[in-house]
Recover the amino acids of this structure.
């Protein structure tokens, strides 16, 4: 926050680019090899979305079955019919073990979760076992269906309940339903009972390196933009990566061009770019060269154990 | 005037060297995700862990030498995706089932026997309470049993009416299987709920067990007063052994959850709950299977067989079978596995 307070409009534009990536809450899981791997917790909206898709599938299948049954047997349905018990059991299994089945089969994903791109993982980095999958899905009833019933149709569940009991149980039901919004790890009861987390299914693309070519050029003396040690010592890693994000935005929008120009101007002002007044500067090429040089500089420092987080931290 | 020219970036070289490994892993994971594990050849499956470990090591290196955030993020997400495949559950369904039947379920029952016992105690206390109260005053029957649930049976029913319910004959042509299926789904749902209610520190579980006992006791008293005790138990026990057993198991597991929450012991509350929940949840699945068996006995066997001797024989057989199963199956593995299990 303090960073934003004393920076100009250009940094705010840059911040907007950065924000797009940093929205999620990160949690680290240490793999059995001892390497921490970061995941982004699924947002409430994603989870609700995934759940609704799964519900649509479950109840869609049930409705289709009911219709088929009605068409196939019509009014003779009430007689002893061997398909009815099978369908009853199937519907029960569908309602209670749909999530278990898919989360086991697809390593923590259901069709709904797949659609929104989230998945279940073990909260402590272990294998997502059948135990955990079963436990987290058995309690779904008291998290969703009973609360819904308590709120929408309390008479059915508890006929003749006194008013205070109804108020109490509704409050309790609401707490259950909205629990994931109130805790750090966005756990629902099922996640607590099973020790699981729901995270965004990781999806990242390896983009071409944006530093390599420029450094090769500058080593050969072909780059028109050369920087001194002093000029490279002004910024830190944070600024470097803001610049990376800006350069990686592969779009032709006006806002992007504008951001490039403002950032380039500001950097030149800050580092006292000697040619500011003489030769015209190609902003994008300048930024690329500056990025490459700065990254080489900071990485070299890092090898010697000096990580400079941002421009406010000292050398 | 210039500083030393920047020679090639170490992180760039690093990336050029390792990139083929990452891309190979990404391709494998991509394919496994799209068309399933079986689409990978044996050779590719063997390479997967190697590629995964190489990528993890790249991630560690990248974190310490590279400031290219895209590379670090990419490696992190690739490692995350591959991790699911390397450490995912992939055991064969048949093995899982065998493991469950031959070890997990009976061992789980043994592990939670005190909780299950406590749940059973509440059923018994409820039953005795309602039994003596109803015996004292038949009109009290409706305090314990909802009218629609009693299906016309009550203090005003005559002995012959009650007897008729107990021995009503059905032919296989009646929709008995449908009846059995609806009994099963209804009871299993209640069982699952009484397990999950454990997370509300268990009070509703006690209540549910007690209420179940009350209903049982009220019916017992109603029949006892008319000298139909033996007939009632013959009607009830063949499936009741299994059904009440499953009911009490679900309740007991709910109590185990509650205990894990209230008395976390050495680990944190959440960790303890997770540990207990995982073990107990599996046992609930076993209880659901018990409900299924009970549904078959109640819905089909009881409707077709009215001979009291056979009814009692079935009750005894199920009781002995469950006791032996829970008491003995997989016992030798208990001590060996106790330390290892999560």
């Amino acid at each position: 926050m303090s960073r934003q307070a004393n920076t100009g409009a250009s940094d705010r534009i840059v911040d907007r680019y950065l924000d797009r990536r940093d929205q999620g809450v990160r949690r680290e899981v240490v793999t059995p090899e001892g390497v921490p791997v970061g995941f982004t917790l699924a947002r409430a909206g994603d989870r609700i979305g995934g759940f609704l898709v799964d519900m649509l599938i479950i109840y869609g299948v049930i409705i289709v079955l009911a219709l088929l049954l009605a068409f196939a047997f019509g009014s003779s349905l009430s007689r002893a019919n061997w398909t009815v018990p099978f369908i009853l059991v199937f519907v029960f299994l569908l309602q209670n073990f749909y999530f278990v089945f898919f989360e086991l089969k697809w390593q923590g994903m259901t069709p709904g979760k797949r659609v929104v791109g989230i998945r279940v993982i073990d909260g402590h980095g272990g294998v997502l076992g059948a135990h955990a999958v079963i436990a987290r899905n058995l309690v779904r009833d008291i998290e969703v269906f009973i609360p819904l019933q308590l709120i929408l149709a309390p008479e059915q569940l508890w006929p003749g309940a006194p008013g205070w009991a109804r108020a109490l149980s509704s409050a309790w039901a609401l707490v259950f339903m909205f629990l994931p919004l109130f805790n750090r790890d966005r756990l629902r009861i099922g996640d607590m009972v099973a020790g699981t987390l729901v995270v965004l299914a990781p999806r990242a693309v390896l983009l071409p390196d944006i530093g390599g070519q420029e450094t090769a050029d500058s080593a050969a003396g072909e780059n028109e933009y050369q920087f001194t040690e002093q000029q490279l010592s002004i910024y830190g890693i944070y600024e470097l990566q803001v610049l990376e994000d800006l350069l990686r935005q592969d779009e032709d929008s006006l806002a992007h061009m504008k951001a490039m120009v403002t950032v380039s101007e500001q950097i030149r002002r800050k580092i006292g770019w000697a040619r500011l007044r003489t030769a015209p500067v190609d902003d994008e090429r300048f930024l690329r060269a500056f990025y490459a040089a700065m990254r080489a500089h900071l990485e070299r420092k890092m090898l010697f154990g000096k990580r400079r987080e941002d421009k406010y931290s000292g050398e | 005037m210039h500083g030393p020219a920047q020679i090639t970036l170490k992180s760039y070289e690093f990336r050029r060297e390792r990139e083929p490994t990452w891309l190979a892993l990404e391709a494998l994971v991509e394919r496994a995700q799209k068309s399933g594990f079986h689409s990978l050849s044996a050779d590719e499956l063997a390479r997967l862990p190697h590629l995964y470990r190489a990528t993890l090591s790249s991630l560690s290196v990248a974190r310490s030498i590279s400031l290219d955030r895209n590379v670090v993020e990419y490696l992190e997400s690739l490692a995350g995706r591959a991790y699911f495949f390397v450490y995912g559950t992939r055991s064969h369904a048949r093995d899982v089932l065998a493991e469950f039947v031959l070890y997990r379920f009976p061992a789980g029952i043994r592990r939670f026997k005190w909780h299950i016992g406590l749940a059973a105690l509440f059923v018994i206390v409820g039953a005795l309470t309602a039994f003596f109260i109803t015996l004292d005053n038949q009109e009290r029957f409706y305090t314990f049993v909802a009218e629609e649930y009693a299906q016309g049976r009550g203090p005003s029913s005559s002995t012959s009416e009650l007897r008729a319910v107990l021995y009503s004959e059905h032919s296989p042509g009646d929709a008995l299987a449908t009846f059995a299926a609806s009994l099963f789904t209804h009871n299993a749902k209640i069982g699952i709920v009484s397990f999950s209610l454990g997370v509300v520190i268990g009070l509703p579980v006690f209540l549910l067990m007690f209420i179940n006992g009350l209903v049982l006791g009220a019916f017992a008293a109603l029949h006892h007063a008319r000298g139909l005790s033996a007939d009632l138990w013959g009607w009830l026990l063949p499936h009741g052994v299994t059904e009440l057993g499953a009911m009490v198991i679900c309740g007991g597991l709910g109590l185990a959850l509650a205990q894990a929450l209230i008395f976390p012991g050495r680990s944190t509350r959440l960790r303890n709950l997770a540990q207990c929940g995982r073990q107990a949840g599996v046992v609930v699945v076993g209880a659901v299977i018990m409900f299924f068996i009970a549904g078959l006995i109640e819905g089909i066997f009881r409707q077709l067989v009215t001979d009291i001797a056979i009814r009692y024989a079935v009750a005894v057989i199920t009781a002995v079978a469950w006791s032996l199963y829970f008491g003995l199956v997989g016992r030798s593995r208990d001590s060996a596995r106790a330390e290892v299990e999560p």
Q: What stands out?
A: Chain A touches chain B through 88 residues (CB under 8 Å). The mean pLDDT of chain A is 77. DSSP finds 15 helices and four strands in chain A. Strands of chain A lie at 26-30, 36-40, 118-122, 196-200.
